[in-house]
């Protein structure tokens, strides 16, 4: 494999042409963002239905701002989609690998088959010098093995280089995170490859995004380490929440006080149901697995504790619900507000909210769910739950009401209106997102995590004058 003249396009004045392999959350967003930055982009996916939808400007998942961006650049002609990777590779100079790396079915290790297949397919179909750029989150050491894979498959005489440029997007804010990244990491890039990447990211660089150049292992570890740190911070505050409950302290006020320390910061110190989604859980488990392989047992042990604390939060909410329902949820109606793993997404992968709802259903509860965006994706995973189109319908006759995802419209829902239709005015605030005094004033018992339960003020009886 050579990195000589990796972008020798026909006209020296041409801008690099881009292919994006994989059009899920990462790939579709990256393809649209690159088109917005002025490049010609072709997105590749094996699913013809997804390609058809994206080609028509329809996004098969919820991500704010993305449908408009894709529709805009499909119309301008800068962005198109195909199932033909050979065609996409032939017309492109830079090839972004944006496929998934899910957890393996039989271990905590990442499944790298999609990354390997996509990289090999690009290498086989190269017709002119190209740059392969990995963006998927992978275990450290993967890129070095992929370079060997590329060398085996690239046609003779075709120059190619593989580098790593990890993604840092957040679901619900993916478009802004891609167009305005807080850092750009380039791993293993030659001077020619770095120059090409700086051209691709010229707009965010001009806006102040720092560029960090490093070796391949460091670039691979940056993303997974960032996720591991955020997960650790969440599990830390949830562990402290347990202490607060036992001692009668308030974890939210404690977190506010901690957050004023610039060494700590307030973000990700919200105690509650814990983290989920398609990134943090699988990434800390993959890091745990890879750390053990490398003999780094302290890191593996830390990730194990982070994972255990996070999973325990789900059981804590289930236990609080059982108590709120009178000791058993069997044949009791339970209203659930929110099942996406976080607000502003319809993603229910490893969602703690959906996990709790399903667990209560398995205990015999009649669970009715409402989520502003995730009813459809939740139903596809758990069709035996009941689904409501609004919060009031989810709460009808409920022995307990659970707020499991902190959507603004669920946080702001009227406790007075809900109080008129539930069987029992008790709410489990699993995200510590409600105003407990407001709910208590409406007659609700508010059960939070890491705080004392707030109960309604007793009615004042005035004796009649005789």
Describe the structure.
- The chain is α/β, with parallel strands linked by helices and 466 residues long.
- The chain has three domains: 197 residues, Rossmann fold (3-Layer(aba) Sandwich); 89 residues, N-(1-d-carboxylethyl)-l-norvaline Dehydrogenase, domain 2 (Orthogonal Bundle); 134 residues, Rossmann fold (3-Layer(aba) Sandwich).
- It is 44% helix and 12% strand.
- The chain is built from 19 helices and 14 strands.
- It has a six-stranded parallel sheet, sandwiched between helices. Strands 11-10-9-12-13-14 form a six-stranded parallel sheet.
- The protein is elongated.
Question: What distance lies between the first and last C-alpha atoms, to the nearest angstrom?
Answer: 101 Å
> What Rg is obtained from the alpha carbons, in whole angstroms?
25 Å
Q: What's the architecture of the largest domain in CATH terms?
A: 3-Layer(aba) Sandwich
By CATH, the topology of the largest domain is Rossmann fold
Question: Regions with pLDDT < 50 over 5+ consecutive residues?
Answer: 1-13, 462-466
Derived structural class? alpha/beta
Could you report the average pLDDT, rounded to the nearest whole number?
Answer: 94
Described by the principal axes of the CA atoms, the overall outline is: elongated
Question: By CATH's scheme, which homologous superfamily of the largest domain applies?
Answer: NAD(P)-binding Rossmann-like Domain
Helix proportion range: 40-55%
In the residues, how many domains can be counted?
3
| CATH class annotation of the largest domain | Alpha Beta
Counting DSSP E segments of at least 2 residues, the number of strands comes to 14
The biggest sheet amounts to: 6 strands, parallel
Put simply, the count of helices is 19
Strand order of the largest sheet: 3-2-1-4-5-6
Q: How large is the share of residues in beta strands?
A: 5-15%
């Amino acid at each position: 494999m050579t990195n000589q003249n990796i972008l020798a396009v026909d006209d020296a004045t041409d801008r690099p042409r881009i292919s994006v392999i994989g059009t899920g959350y990462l790939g579709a967003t990256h393809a649209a963002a690159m088109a917005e930055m002025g490049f010609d982009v072709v997105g590749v996916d094996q699913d013809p239905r997804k390609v058809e939808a994206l080609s028509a400007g329809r996004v098969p998942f919820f991500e704010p701002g993305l449908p408009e961006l894709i529709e805009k650049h499909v119309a301008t002609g800068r962005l198109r989609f195909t199932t033909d990777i050979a065609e996409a590779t032939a017309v492109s100079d830079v090839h972004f690998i944006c496929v998934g790396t899910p957890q393996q079915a039989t271990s905590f290790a990442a499944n790298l088959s999609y990354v390997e297949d996509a990289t090999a397919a690009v290498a086989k179909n190269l017709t002119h010098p190209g740059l392969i750029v990995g963006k998927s989150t992978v275990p450290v050491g993967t890129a070095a093995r992929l370079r060997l894979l590329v060398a085996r498959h690239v046609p003779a005489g075709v120059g190619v280089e593989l580098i790593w440029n990890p993604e840092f997007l957040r679901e619900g804010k993916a478009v802004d995170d891609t167009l305005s990244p807080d850092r750009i990491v380039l791993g293993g890039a030659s001077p020619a490859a770095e120059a090409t990447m700086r051209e691709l990211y010229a707009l965010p660089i001009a806006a102040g995004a720092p560029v960090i150049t490093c070796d391949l292992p460091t670039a691979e570890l940056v993303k997974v380490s960032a996720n591991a740190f955020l997960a650790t911070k969440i599990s830390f505050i949830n562990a402290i929440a347990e202490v607060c409950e036992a001692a009668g302290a308030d974890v939210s006020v404690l977190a506010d006080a901690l957050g004023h320390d610039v060494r700590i910061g307030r973000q990700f110190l919200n105690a509650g149901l814990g983290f989920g989604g398609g990134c943090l859980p699988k990434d800390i488990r993959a890091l745990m697995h890879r750390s053990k392989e490398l003999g780094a047992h302290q890191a593996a042990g830390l990730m194990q504790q982070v994972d255990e604390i996070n999973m325990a939060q789900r059981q804590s909410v289930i236990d609080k619900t059982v108590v709120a329902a009178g000791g058993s949820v069997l044949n009791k109606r339970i209203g659930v507000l929110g099942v996406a793993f976080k607000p502003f997404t319809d993603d229910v992968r490893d969602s703690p909210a959906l996990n709790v709802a399903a667990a209560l259903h398995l205990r015999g509860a009649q669970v009715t769910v409402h989520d502003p965006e995730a009813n459809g994706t939740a139903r596809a995973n758990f069709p035996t739950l009941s689904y409501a189109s609004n919060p009031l319908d989810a709460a009808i006759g409920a022995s307990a009401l659970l707020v499991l995802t902190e959507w603004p419209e669920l946080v702001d829902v009227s406790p007075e209106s809900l109080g008129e239709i539930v069987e029992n005015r008790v709410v489990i605030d699993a995200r510590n997102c409600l105003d407990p005094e407001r709910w208590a004033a409406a007659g609700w018992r508010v059960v939070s995590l890491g705080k004392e339960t707030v109960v309604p003020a007793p009615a004042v009886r005035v004796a009649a004058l005789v």
